[in-house]
């Protein structure tokens, strides 16, 4: 595994963990969040587990359901 692959996997894990935390803070199950986002519950599971990189559109749907916004920046 090269550095870029490691960073991608790390990023997906951090992002998925943050989504899971926000969801749990608001008292939603994965199923409830998926329903609000109009997507399969399995998609939420895969995102939270860091198995997939969600598109910006998907992130926005999740953020809106959690009353949050998505911020993107470069360092």
Structural commentary:
The chain is an all-alpha fold and 75 residues long. The protein has one domain: lambda repressor-like DNA-binding domains (434 Repressor (Amino-terminal Domain), Orthogonal Bundle), CATH 1.10.260. Helices cover 65% and strands 0% of the residues. The protein has helices spanning 3-25, 30-37, 41-48, 56-65. The longest helix has 23 residues, at 3-25. The mean pLDDT is 95.
Chart the SSEs and their pairings:
Elements lengths: L2 H23 L4 H8 L3 H8 L7 H10 L10
Helix pairs in contact: 2-3, 2-4
| Mean of residue pLDDT values | 95
- Count the domains: 1
Low-confidence stretches: none
Q: What is the CA-based Rg, rounded?
A: 12 Å
CATH topology: 434 Repressor (Amino-terminal Domain)
Which outline best applies?
Answer: globular
Task: Let me know the number of strands.
Answer: 0
CATH superfamily: lambda repressor-like DNA-binding domains
Main structural class: mainly alpha
